[in-house]
Automatic annotation (TrEMBL):
Pfam families (alphabetical): Polysacc_deac_1 (PF01522), YkoP (PF22790)
NodB homology domain ranges (all copies): 35-105
Listed name of the protein: Polysaccharide deacetylase familiy protein
Entries under SUPFAM superfamilies matching the protein: Glycoside hydrolase/deacetylase
Domain of life: Bacteria
Length: 388
């Protein structure tokens, strides 16, 4: 009896790990090559649905609403209003009480009540039966790749800042129809994300694809990236869809350079791999050039920064942008090479070529960065007479 109970608990735990935390096989984001994003709202309709619709209408934005059956039946006029505004309506189950879903017959009834093509489980909860039931009912499991965290008692300003930091091309954003802070969050974030070049669309227009094991692993590791950014005070150089660098202020670990001794304050460059993972080589070159202008703007604002640098097996390619390379000691070289190969496989689905197998240090001095990529900010270095 105890063994059977243990196996059942293990099966439930593995199902939640694979299908909720990683999202394997779920529809959680679209193509990373286009600046389309899907805003999705759970738990409605609510007393704030009309205000939410007015806000979306004011900005010309379409969204997807995952409605619960009990609330939809209680407010049919709001369901009709959502559809009339051109938004997509999908299924969030019969109600929002997740505990009962641990019983298979309750979960089947819960999923079968509302007709829809997409189903989002309450809290994303998965049991061993969720996926088979969805397949039998002809529904796709819709999750997300960015939580707005609008259920937490945080200021709308802080939530909006976080959303804009982590929003990516193809993102499916989890929001809620109900909390007052969601409205304020969107009042702050919507104009900014539109100005950055993002285009909010319905889930159908986004055309998400089911997550492969590699894409599911990327989704599962996103929390580690956020914790690293907070702990090390990493900031993005530009918030646009294809601004490809995050920067971390650190002492330069490389060799002493003329006028720049070892330990000079520098910016370590971290590639925004999810933004670059589907770009063609020409697109990557173009966006890298534009992104380095944003890095230069940050450097121009901080007179302490002497140079920018990064570790990568692709460091020789940085010469195209003026970077110099330097060898690494054996142990750091081995660690950087393994990390570079891991990320190259994770985000590109392939291993580096033999000639790019070993990582090296790439760096660009402050003067050369500002000369090659003059930022269009008041902090830019003045141009010489006659210089374009």
């Amino acid at each position: 009896m105890e063994l059977a109970l243990g196996l059942i608990l293990l099966l439930y735990g593995l199902s939640d790990l694979l299908f909720r935390f990683l999202g394997l096989g779920a529809y959680a984001h679209g193509s990373r090559r286009e600046a389309k994003v899907a805003l999705t709202f759970d738990d409605g309709p609510s007393e704030r649905t009309e205000a939410l619709l007015a806000l979306l209408r004011r900005h010309g934005v379409k969204a997807t609403f995952f409605l619960t059956g009990e609330r939809a039946r209680a407010h049919p006029h709001l369901v009709e209003a959502i559809r009339k505004e051109g938004h997509q309506v999908e299924d969030h189950g019969a109600y929002h009480r997740a505990l009962g879903l641990l019983l298979p017959w309750v979960e089947w009834w819960h999923m079968a009540q509302n007709p829809a093509r997409y189903y989002r489980p309450p809290h994303g909860l998965h049991t061993p039966f969720t996926r088979p039931f969805a397949r039998a009912l002809g529904k796709r499991i819709a999750l997300w790749d960015l939580e707005s965290k609008d259920w937490l008692p945080l200021s709308p300003e802080a939530l909006a800042e976080r959303l804009l930091y982590y929003l990516r091309p193809g993102s499916v954003v989890l929001l809620h129809d109900g909390p007052e802070r969601t409205l304020r969050l969107l009042e702050i974030a919507l104009p900014k994300l539109l100005a950055l070049g993002y285009r909010p669309v319905t889930l159908d227009e986004l055309k998400p694809l089911p997550l492969t094991p590699r894409l599911a692993l990327i989704r599962g590791l996103q929390g580690l990236e956020e914790r690293y950014n907070l702990r090390h005070r990493v900031e993005r150089a530009g918030l646009g869809p294809f601004d490809l660098f995050r920067v971390e202020k650190k002492p330069f670990p490389g060799p002493s350079l003329p006028g720049l001794p070892k330990g000079t304050p520098a910016l370590e460059l971290h590639l925004e791999s999810q933004r670059a993972m589907e770009l063609t080589p020409l697109e990557a070159i173009r966006h890298t050039r534009e992104s380095l202008k944003k890095v230069a703007a940050l450097v121009a604002q901080d007179p302490e920064i002497g140079l920018v640098y990064g570790y990568s097996s692709l460091a020789p390619g940085g010469r195209l942008f003026g970077f110099q390379t330097a060898p690494l000691p054996l142990l750091p070289r081995l660690v950087a090479s393994l990390a570079s190969a891991w990320f190259y496989w994770l985000y590109r689905g392939e291993l580096p070529k033999r000639e790019n197998l070993w990582a090296s240090l790439a760096y660009l001095t402050r003067e050369e960065l500002l000369r090659r990529f003059p930022p269009s900010t008041p902090a830019s270095l003045p141009l010489e007479p006659g210089e374009r």
